[in-house]
Design goal:
Blueprint: H1 3-25, E1 37-43, E2 54-57, E3 60-70, E4 80-86, E5 97-102, E6 109-114, E7 129-133, H2 137-147, H3 149-167, H4 171-178, H5 180-208, H6 212-219, H7 221-249, H8 253-260, H9 262-284, H10 287-294, H11 296-310, H12 315-321, H13 323-344, H14 348-355, H15 357-393
Parallel strand pairs: 1-7, 2-6, 5-7
Antiparallel strand pairs: 1-4, 2-3, 3-4, 5-6
C-alpha cells in the first residue's frame, strides 16, 4: 500500500471518529435510521425554554426542542414560535395538551405533550399547535409571599412572641419549659396517669382471669346461666302479666271482676263511704275509737295506769320491780314444769291416775257398779213404799 493510501485511510478514520464523537457528545439523540417528525407550536411565554430542551410525549422522552424564537408579527397568544423535532411520529387527538413546564424543582424547562383521548378524534399535525405555560413554582411562591407579606410579617411577629413566652415563665408552655415546680407537677401527673394505666391493666388482667364481680359476669358460666334464668323468669312474669291484662280486658279472671264488675265497684264505693263516714265520726268525737283518739281523759287514765305500773308500791309495780316476786314466780313455774313432767312420766298418784290404763278401767268398773246399784235402789223404792204403807195399816 502506498503512503498516499495510508494517508487517505487515516484521514477517513479520523473523520469518522470526529463525526461519531460530535454526535456522541453534542447530539445525544442522534440516529441514522429512525424517521423523525417536525412540528411547530406557538405560545405566549416560553418561560426560558431553549434549544435542546427535552420533549416528553405522555411522560416519555420523545424528542427535543429544535428552536425557540419570538414572532412579534403574530397575536399575543402566538408570539413565541417553538420548533419541535420528534424521534418518531406521534398522533394527537382533539383534547391534547401542549405545556411548557419546569423539569424539576432545581430548575430546567421542558415541553410536555399529552396526546388526549381517542374518542375526540385525531388532529392534523401540519397545523401549528398551541402551547400553554405552567406556572413556575418559585414564581408562584414569590407572588404568594408578595400578596400575603403583611400576614407573613404578623405571623413572624406572633412566632417571636411565642418564642419569647417559651423562653420566659409566662404561659403554660413557658412554665412547662422553665418553671421547675410546674415541671414537677406535670411529671407527677404523668406518673399518676401511669399508675392509673397500670391499675387499668391489672383490672383488665383480673377480668381476663374471671376475678371480681365484672370478671365473673363476663367469664363465669354459672353466673351467666343464673342471669339468663333470671331474665327468662322476668320474661315469663311479663308474659303472665300481659296474659292477666288480656284476660282482664276480655272479662275473665279476678282482676277483670275487680275492674269491670259493677257489684264490686259498688262494694268498693260502700267501703270507701264507710271509711269516710268512720273518719268523720272520729273527727267529730263520736264512738269509742274517737274517744280513744280525741278524749284527753282516756289519755290521762292510760298515763296514770302506766305510772301505776311504774309505782313500786302497787301490785303490778311490785310484780314488775321486786326481784323476790319474780324469783317466786320463776320457782312456781319450775314446780309446775316438774309436776307436768312427773305426770307425763307416771310418777306419783296423779301421774298413775292419769296415765295408768288399769286404774282407769277399775274406776270405770266401780262407777258402773255404783250406777247399777243406784238403778236397782230406784226401781225397788216404789215397792218398798207400797209395802210399808200396807203394813202400817195393820
Amino acid at each position: 500500500m502506498t503512503p498516499r493510501r495510508h494517508l487517505s485511510l487515516g484521514l477517513l478514520f479520523l473523520g469518522a471518529i470526529s463525526v461519531l464523537s460530535y454526535y456522541t457528545l453534542f447530539k445525544t439523540d442522534f440516529s441514522l435510521f429512525e424517521s423523525k417528525q417536525s412540528i411547530v407550536a406557538y405560545t405566549e411565554d416560553a418561560r426560558g425554554l431553549r434549544k435542546g430542551a427535552p420533549v416528553l410525549f405522555a411522560g416519555v422522552r420523545w424528542g427535543k426542542v429544535e428552536a425557540v424564537a419570538p414572532d412579534l408579527e403574530k397575536p399575543r397568544a402566538e408570539r413565541v414560535r417553538v420548533d419541535i423535532t420528534l424521534d418518531q411520529p406521534i398522533v394527537l387527538f382533539g383534547d391534547h395538551v401542549v405545556r411548557i413546564e419546569s423539569a424539576s424543582v432545581l430548575g430546567g424547562v421542558q415541553l410536555s405533550i399529552d396526546p388526549g383521548s381517542r374518542e375526540t378524534g385525531e388532529v392534523d399535525l401540519g397545523a401549528p399547535l398551541r402551547a400553554s405555560s405552567a406556572p413556575d413554582v418559585l414564581a408562584a411562591l414569590g407572588e404568594l409571599v408578595d400578596e400575603n407579606r403583611e400576614s407573613i410579617k404578623n405571623s413572624v411577629a406572633g412566632l417571636e412572641q411565642v418564642m419569647a413566652s417559651l423562653n420566659g415563665t409566662e404561659g403554660t408552655f413557658g412554665r412547662l419549659l422553665n418553671d421547675e415546680q410546674t415541671a414537677n407537677t406535670v411529671v407527677a401527673t404523668i406518673e399518676s396517669a401511669q399508675g392509673t394505666f397500670d391499675n387499668i391493666e391489672a383490672l383488665t388482667e383480673e377480668l381476663r382471669g374471671g376475678q371480681g364481680t365484672i370478671g365473673k359476669l363476663i367469664y363465669d358460666e354459672k353466673l351467666y346461666n343464673d342471669i339468663e334464668a333470671f331474665v327468662l323468669g322476668l320474661d315469663e312474669a311479663v308474659a303472665d302479666a300481659r296474659k292477666l291484662m288480656a284476660d282482664a280486658r276480655d272479662g275473665e279472671g279476678v282482676i277483670s271482676t275487680l275492674i269491670y264488675d259493677p257489684k264490686v265497684a259498688a262494694s268498693t264505693r260502700d267501703i270507701v263511704e264507710s271509711v269516710r263516714s268512720a273518719s268523720e265520726k272520729i273527727d267529730r268525737g263520736d264512738g269509742t275509737l274517737a274517744k280513744l283518739i280525741n278524749d284527753p281523759t282516756i289519755a290521762n287514765e292510760v298515763e296514770a295506769a302506766l305510772k301505776g305500773f311504774n309505782n313500786p308500791d302497787g301490785t303490778i309495780g311490785r310484780l314488775l320491780n321486786e326481784p323476790e316476786i319474780y324469783d317466786n314466780l320463776l320457782a312456781l313455774s319450775a314446780d309446775a314444769a316438774d309436776a307436768a313432767a312427773a305426770i307425763k312420766e307416771q310418777r306419783g298418784t296423779l301421774g298413775i291416775l292419769i296415765n295408768d290404763d288399769t286404774i282407769a278401767k277399775d274406776i270405770e268398773r266401780a262407777l258402773r257398779t255404783l250406777t247399777g246399784g243406784l238403778e236397782e235402789q230406784r226401781e225397788a223404792a216404789p215397792i218398798a213404799t207400797f209395802l210399808s204403807t200396807v203394813f202400817l195399816g195393820f
